[in-house]
Each structure stands twice: as C-alpha cells, then as structure tokens.
Amino acid sequence: MSNRIEIGRIAELFRYPVKSMAGVAIDSSYLGWHGLGGDRRFAFRRVTEQGGFPWLTASRLSALLRYQPFGHDNNVDEPLPTHVRTPSGASFELRSEELRQELAQQFGSDLELMRLDKGIFDEAAVSIISASTIGGIAHELGYEIDQRRFRPNIVLETNRQETFCEDDWVGGTLLFGDEEYGAAVSITLRDLRCVMINFDPDTAQNDSLILKAVGRMNKGNAGVYGTVVRTGILNVGQTVWLARN
Question: Full-prediction pTM beyond 0.85?
Fold first, then answer.
C-alpha cells in the first residue's frame, strides 16, 4: 500500500460479548477475521420469530444495556463470558435457565441463547470512532456525553482534531502498530446511527437530543465500519496509519 500517513493512536478498545448488553473495556485484543476476540458472539433470540430481526436489541429494549456479561470461559480459545449481572445485582450463568427466564419476564418473549462463532453484527465486524467526533457532538449539545453510547470497538485519539474526520477514511485501510505486518481494517462505510446512541449505558435513560444532533451535523453518521483484511493484535496506545492504494 502507498500514501500512508500516521493519523493517531488507539485510545480505547471495547468488546460486547452479548449483543445489546453492556460492553467490556479491554487493553488488548486479538483482531481476527470476525472482529475482536469474543465480540458479539452471543445473542438472545425470540423463539417465535424465524425471520426478519429476531435478536433482542437495545434499540427497542434499552434496559438490555444494563445487563453486564462477565467472567471467562476457560474451555474456549476466545474470551467468552460465563455469567451475566442483572440491573438488580443478581448474577446468573450465561447459559442458565434462570437467566433465560429473567429476560423472558422482563422483555415478554420466549427466548433462547444463540452462539455464532462469526459474530452477530448489524453491518460489519469492526466499528471505529474518534474521540474528536464524540467531543464535537458534545460541543454541539453543550454537555459531555459518554462515548460508550456509540458502542465502538475502537476509539481513536486522532492527530487531526476534527469532528467526523472518520468520513475521509472510507475507501482506505487503517493499519495498527507495525504498518507492514500488524492488523489492518478496510474502512467500508460510514456508521449511520440509530436511537441506541440516545440511551445512557448505565441507566438506559433516553436523551433524544443526541441522535438529533448527529442528524443535524452529519446526516446521522458518526464513526465508520470496517472489514478485517489482516489479523493481528490491537493494544491501547498503538499507532494507527491510514493507507490508500
């Protein structure tokens, strides 16, 4: 690849073991063909819905954000959780009937836990946003916003402190760490946001001004999606390069 420029560094990394439940901040992760290790490998599915979008999603059921996966399954290679902590503070094994019943009672459906090794993604396996974009949206609103609202895998601290600088990366490739042999992600499209960003990740309270601001500022887009083109290790603090052919 030619025309490489250094654009910043990794500020934070997150994975979301169970779709639409709370994320986990991490310092390092293997980036494989299906995203970060352990990311969105589980989801709860409505048994009665065979088509369309059967997964429980916080865009419709915001209280899901308050369920926290934790633990580590030593029987698998990926960092997969063993338990989930509920908003009331109770803990259940991820695969238990007790957790299934808890969720069914809260969300009103007969449910089953699904595991997909390829991950359960809406658009692409990797989502990326810059701290400057989050800061720019906060400036527009006039108050701070939690970056966890955007549910990114990778938050970048960019050299170019410009809101929505990620838009210019579409069609290029981000190189992480060693620009010759490190992980690489092809940036495929902008991240068109939904109501998820309105929900506080700790309380699930709705602030509709956030999505309205993103719509006003950038036609609803904030951050980008990418496809893994070279696997490798990601670390907080790692240098990030943008390459174009």
Answer: yes
